Every structure is written in C-alpha cells, then in structure tokens.
From TrEMBL:
Cofactor: Mg(2+)
Domain HD residues, every copy: 281-433
First-level EC class: transferase
CDD domains per record: HDc (cd00077), NT_ClassII-CCAase (cd05398)
Record PANTHER family: MULTIFUNCTIONAL CCA PROTEIN
Protein EC: 2.7.7.72
Name the UniProt record assigns to this protein: CCA tRNA nucleotidyltransferase
Gene3D superfamilies found in the cross-reference section: Beta Polymerase, domain 2 (3.30.460.10), cca-adding enzyme, domain 2 (1.10.3090.10)
Organism this protein belongs to: Flavimobilis rhizosphaerae
Length: 502
C-alpha cells in the first residue's frame, strides 16, 4: 500500500524570522504565473483569494509545494464559474465542502498547475456525529482562526502577495512550536482529528506541542472516538511514513490518544515487568521501528522507503506478547506463540482502522513470520527449511529480512554480532539456492492439469491434495523433472483410498 503525503517533510532546523522570510521570498518568486493570473481573475470579479495553509508554511521552510490550496470569499458556484474560465479542466467533487478544483495544462516545459479553491469556512462536529458539519464564513481572518495550528494558519493574499499572519504562525514556526490559533479546547471540540494532526506534525516537522495544547489533548482524548476510523487511519499513515514517527507515537501515548488508535501499544507499556525479567516491550518496539526504517532503501532498492507495511509490522510485531506472557517456575518469562496471537491481534486492529485487505494480510503475515528465523543459528537448517522460509514469505521476503534484522535490540555486542552473522549466512544461502533453483518461484513438478491427466481424475479436492504433496516433495528434494514428478505422484496415489475405488 502506497501512502503519498504532500506534507512529508524533513524536520526543519532552527531558523530566525529573517531566515524564514528570505526562504519564503525565493519560493514565492517561483510561483507559476498562472497563480498570479488566478488572483487577478478573482479580484476582477470582486472576490478575495489567498494561498493558505501548507503551501505558505512550506514557503517559509524554503520548500515549494505541489499542493496549491486557496481560500476565497466567493461561493462554490462563483468559484466554479471562475475556475472554468481559468483552467483547461475543473471538477466539483468537493463542492459540498466548498472546494472546487481545476487544472491548467502545462505550457512549454513547465508542469501542469493544479489548484483547489475553498470558500471561507469552519468545520464543526455535532457531539454525536462522526462527520464534520461544514459552515461557510465571510472573512479570511475567520477562516484562519479555524485552522488546526498557527503554522498552518498563515495566508498569502493574491494578487498583491500580502502575508496574513494574525496568530503568530511565523514565530511559532521559527520556534518549532505547535499551537492552536484559538483556545485548544475549542479547536479540538470543533474537530477532534486535530489532536491526531498534532502528533503527525511532531513526527513530520519535529515540532513540540506547547503545554496548553498538550494538556487539552490529554483531557479531550476520548473526543477522538467520534471521528471516523478512515480519517484516523489517514493521519496515522502520515505519522508513520514521516521522518521521525517515534516522536508522533510518543505524543499519542503520552496524551492518551493511543488508547483509541493503537491500544496494543498501551498494553505493551502497561505490562512492563518491574522486576526486569524481560525487556520493556513498548520501548523495544519503538527501537525496532527506528531500526527497520534505517534498513529501508532508496527508490531503486528492494524496500523503498517510507514503507508503510514494514513500519506497521515493526510497530505491531510484538503486540501478542502481553497476552502470552508467562512467569515460569525458574524465574524466566516466556511468550510462547506470541507471533501467532500477534498476527490475529494485528488483523483485528487494522480492520478496525479500515485498512485495505492487502495491507492487513501483508502486515499480519510479517508479524506471524518474524520469529521464524530464531533457531537458525542454533543448528544448520536443511535446504528444505530454507526453501520453506522463502516460500512462506513470498513477496514479503525483503521486508521480512529487514523486520528480522531490526528485531535485534540486545545490548550484548557478542550476541548481536552472532545474530547478524547468522542472518547474513541465511541470506547467502537463499541467494545461492535462488540462483540454482529459482527458489522464489517454487512449484511442484506437475501442475493441476498434468495431475488430472496422470491420475485420470476430474477437478476437485483430490487434485489439491496431490498438488500439495508434490509441493512438499519439491521443498524437501529440490527440483524434480516431470518424469520424477509422475513417478512420485503415482506412488502417492497408490496409498490413497480413492485409488482402490477408481
């Protein structure tokens, strides 16, 4: 599952107000002329238009944005009329929420210009509703006051390029502080999802949530329950694919929001063994997540980062430990079958968050397989065991490599070195077998049609059983010819009760 987030940013370093302004000037100067033309068009029709939110914030960080979001005094119908004149294509799919989109196709060697223009508005929730109620406003100041955080509540009036920053967003951006434009209790009551966005921006921008906002998030965490699972999941995805998801997850945990998003993390933290008989599962999980991220590759690599599936698997790989923890008579602690229990819990949680079927299956499978490697270093695996490892992982093999390596968080340097060496050896054996046998595409010597022709049977469960038997032989013996496969199939068939009835 791919997550594309135009807010995905490297956290900014410290900067003075003057440095931020200089960065913004260079970005604003590079705005497509079509944007200024759009400002002239709205002004000529008697309407206000302003670039707002993320694009303005990004400009002060010295980054141009592909998302050009505007706000206007024009009604949706008036906006639609103007954008139809400005663009080569337009759409009104967001008209219910006051948003109209348009595209101006590329001229010469420049890219298309895509804009979304939204009527001044505020979003408010009914106490019992999961959907925001859209109300339109009539001033830019009023619109900005309903934005989530001051750093996103700055606007650039067009066509005059006048900065509007009535809430001190620029100063907060320079200080790396997240603060709501109005009282945080009112802001979060209007839209509880903003609490999730605070955690997300902590992960994306490396910003700190200021104390009053933090306190409101903690007091109002239960309010998140009225927000739809789909909206919560979207924010969680953006948090997890951010440069530093640990920061965002810690905000979720410390404010109590995690109890409504990822309660498994809370359970991990709350089952800390005060006697130190096993490692802190919660802190171990955060470390595994960071180590898995470090093992992601560039765009042309095996696991291009940010990889949501790998990160979710790292986050949930030990979620079955609290339910399986046992204190043994000898004083040790066991977590037998926690990978199986964890896979079930993972499936349940991701379904509750409305993830797609493929993502759920992939993450749960990685959780289920993450312990398979353990024991490899204790005794040599047969080639058959290596083949099974690869076949069971299937297309998840490269992610499994990284999850397994990331799961080593021991401070014992000798043990860590031994585990790395063992996994290096396993990967080398996989590569050797793959070269010799095309291990990634293991199939039995005969397919279903050949099995039916050899046995003279019709399609049905018997064919599936025969196929599975030949696949097991392929795992154990390695490649087989068709003649060897038929011989093995007939030998198996002779022992089946259906053979006597044929």
């Amino acid at each position: 599952m791919d997550v594309v987030d135009d807010d995905l940013l490297t956290p900014p370093g410290p900067a003075t107000l003057e440095q931020l302004r200089r960065r913004a000037l260079s970005v604003v100067a590079s705005l497509p002329p079509e944007v200024l033309e759009l400002g002239d068009l709205f002004a000529a029709a008697g309407h206000e238009l302003a670039l707002v939110g993320g694009p303005v914030r990004d400009a002060f960080l010295g980054r141009s944005s592909n998302d050009l979001d505007f706000t206007t005094s024009a009604t949706p119908d008036e906006t639609l009329t103007l954008l139809a004149r400005w663009g080569d294509a337009h759409w009104d799919i967001g008209k219910e929420f006051g948003t109209i989109g348009a595209r101006r196709f590329a001229r010469l060697d420049r890219s298309d210009v895509v804009v979304e223009v939204t009527t001044y508005r505020s979003d408010e929730y009914d106490p019992e509703s999961r959907k925001p109620v859209v109300t339109f406003g009539d001033t830019l100041d009023g619109d900005l006051s309903r934005r989530d955080f001051t750093v996103n509540a700055m606007a650039l009036r067009l066509p005059q390029l006048e900065l509007v920053d009535i809430h001190g967003g620029l100063e907060d951006l320079a200080s790396g502080v997240l603060r709501t434009p109005i009282a945080p209790e009112l802001s979060f009551d209007d839209d509880p999802l903003r609490m999730m966005r605070a955690a997300r921006f902590a992960a994306q921008l490396g910003m700190t949530v200021e104390p009053a906002t933090y306190a409101a998030m903690t007091a109002m965490a239960d309010r998140l329950t009225i927000v739809s699972a789909e909206r919560v999941r979207a924010e969680l995805d953006k948090l997890l694919v951010a440069p530093h998801p640990r920061r965002g997850l810690e905000v979720l945990m410390d404010t109590g929001l995690a109890a409504h998003v990822l309660p498994e993390l809370v359970t991990m933290r709350d089952t800390v063994d005060e006697h130190g008989r096993h490692k802190d599962v919660y802190q171990h999980t955060l470390t595994v997540l960071e180590q898995a991220i470090d093992l992601e590759t560039g765009p042309d690599g095996a696991v291009p980062g940010p990889d949501l599936v790998l990160r979710l698997a790292a986050l949930l790989h030990d979620c079955g430990k609290p339910a399986t923890r046992r204190f043994e008579p000898d004083g040790s602690v066991s977590f037998h079958h926690h990978e199986v229990v964890g896979a079930k819990l993972t499936t349940k949680r991701l379904r509750a968050l409305r993830y797609d079927k493929e993502t759920i299956q992939q993450v749960a499978r990685l959780v289920e397989l993450h312990l398979r490697f353990h024991g490899y270093g204790d005794g040599a695996w047969t080639d058959s065991a290596v083949r099974r490892y690869v076949t069971d992982a299937g297309p998840l093999l490269e992610r499994l490599h990284r999850l397994t390596r990331a799961d080593c968080t021991t401070r014992n340097k000798r043990k860590a070195s031994r585990l790395r060496a063992a996994y290096d050896d396993l990967e080398q054996r996989i590569a050797t077998l793959a070269e010799a046998e095309e291990i990634a595409a293991i199939r039995p010597a005969l397919d279903g049609s050949q099995i039916m022709a050899t046995l003279g049977v019709r399609p049905g469960p018997l064919v599936g059983r025969a196929y599975k038997h030949l696949l097991e032989l392929r795992m154990d013996r390695g490649p087989m010819s068709e003649d060897e496969g038929r011989e093995a199939l007939l030998a198996w068939w002779a022992e089946q009760p259906e053979a006597a009835e044929a």
